[in-house]
Design goal:
Layout lengths: L3 E7 L8 H11 L11 E5 L13 H13 L3 E6 L11 H10 L11 E3 L8 E3 L11 E3 H5 L2 E7 L1 E3 L3 E3 L1 H7 L4 H8 L5 E2 L9 H5 L5 E4 L2 E4 L9 H5 L5 E2 L6 H16 L4 E7 L21 E5 L2 H14 L7 H5 L10 H5 L5 H10 L7 E5 L2
Parallel strand pairs: 1-16, 2-3, 2-7, 3-4, 7-14
Antiparallel strand pairs: 1-15, 5-6, 8-9, 10-13, 11-12, 14-15
Helix pairs in contact: 1-2, 5-9, 9-13
The structure holds iron/sulfur cluster (SF4) (2 copies).
One iron/sulfur cluster (SF4) binds next to helix 8.
Length: 372
């Protein structure tokens, strides 16, 4: 595979070039206009931020992107899928409320939001890819049905995958609730008996007749359970929960396979914002201090090259003071250190990128092109 181009702009501005203008210049320089957007539904995959987290991307960027896509003839919408865990985004009602709280409304974001996997995370399409780990990833229906995928990614650390960039936003973020279960768990869900109130909702909705009440407590028949995650999605009592988490290595492999399903046969383009590089995911209800200075915005048609370029830029950056890195490491760790391995030593982001490359998602070999 030949080298991919990754375009990068720093955060210096002037009265004639604010950050929104710079983002638009960047994506145009990267060739976004070569995609035929006319009358196409464009899923802008973004993370609206868990309430309390302030590191997520500002809606202003989404608004500028949506306006650009409309000017190119597209029909953009903002989207994300529901989460597996309880919190502010585990169903479409809460998710939309959280997005509104975080400033994503039709005025600020100039675009409507569709929660990709529906009210309770059960609205998905299985996209066959015959992967080594996932045969047919369960992708939120609105994303699966879109014609074009555009990811806007907040690049930061991640406690399970090392960092969160384009692949994480696409592979994990587009998975329906059941898909997220497949990604996270090496096994089927379990029922914590003491939390189960016997409400019977999981029993009614299990399509495989695999969960039943025994003495008013849910029990799973593992001979029948296919690990779809529906019961985890529906249980409001933290009783039906994930089984043991998968390893970081396998999780990154599965995320690559899910990304392959999301992008299958679709034009796609990706923009990552290396700003507020917090040590952990925006799914947390807080964002700890950034580990490096804000660097800039990068864009590419190749999500693997984009993630590798962003990771390399973070590696090359100096470490800031008073954050999760300096809590445990001397201040010697500066330029050239893999910051994500320092804060999440059990993660395997490099293997994830190698696997993504192996299954044809892109290349780690890139040319970084500066855009003013
Ligand atoms: S939905 Fe949860 S609380 Fe209700 S029966 Fe199932 S496991 Fe128990
Ligand atoms: S994971 Fe799916 S198949 Fe298994 S018990 Fe839950 S709802 Fe039923």
């Amino acid at each position: 595979m030949s080298k991919s181009n990754v375009y990068f702009t720093n955060l210096r501005t002037s009265p004639s070039r604010n950050l929104l203008t710079k983002m638009e210049r960047l994506v145009k320089a990267a060739g976004i206009e070569n995609i035929d957007f006319k009358k196409q539904f464009v899923a802008i995959k973004i993370h609206f931020g868990e309430p309390g987290n302030l590191a997520y991307l500002r809606p202003n960027y989404a608004a500028r992107m949506a306006n650009l896509l409309r000017s190119l003839g597209g029909k953009p919408f903002l989207t994300d899928s529901n989460t597996l865990y309880s919190g502010g985004r585990s169903n479409a009602v809460d998710h939309l409320k959280s997005a509104m709280e975080n400033g994503y409304n039709p005025i600020s974001a100039q675009c409507d939001i569709i929660i990709a996997d529906g009210l309770k995370g059960t609205d998905y399409r299985e996209i066959p890819i015959d992967g080594e780990y996932c045969k047919a990833p369960k992708i939120g229906a609105a994303i699966a049905d879109a014609d074009i995928i555009l990811s806007m990614n907040h690049f930061k650390g991640h406690e399970q995958t090392g960092f969160g960039g384009a692949l994480k936003n696409l592979g994990m973020g587009c998975a329906s609730v059941g898909g997220k279960l497949e990604l996270h768990s090496a096994s089927q869900p379990i029922v914590i008996q003491k939390n189960c109130i016997g409400c019977n909702i999981c029993v009614k909705h299990c399509a495989h007749d695999a969960i039943h009440l025994v003495d008013r407590k849910a029990e799973i028949n593992y001979d029948r359970c296919v690990g779809c995650g529906q019961c985890v999605a529906l249980c409001q009592y933290n009783a039906a929960v994930l089984g043991e988490d998968d390893t970081s290595e396998r999780l990154n492999y599965k995320i690559a396979e899910y990304t392959k399903a999301v992008l299958k046969d679709k034009p796609n383009f990706h923009v990552s914002f290396i700003m507020n590089v917090s040590p952990e995911c925006d799914c947390w209800n807080h964002n700890d201090a950034a580990i490096i200075p804000d660097l800039g915005i990068a864009a590419s048609f190749d999500p693997v090259a984009l993630d590798k370029a962003c990771a390399d830029l973070v590696t090359a950056a100096p470490v800031l003071q008073n954050n999760k890195i300096t809590d445990h490491h001397s201040h010697d760790h500066h330029e050239g250190t893999d910051k994500f391995c320092l804060i999440h030593p059990n993660t395997e982001w490099k293997k994830g990128l190698e696997y993504a490359e192996k299954i044809g998602l892109g290349t780690q070999d890139y040319t970084l092109i500066q855009v003013d």
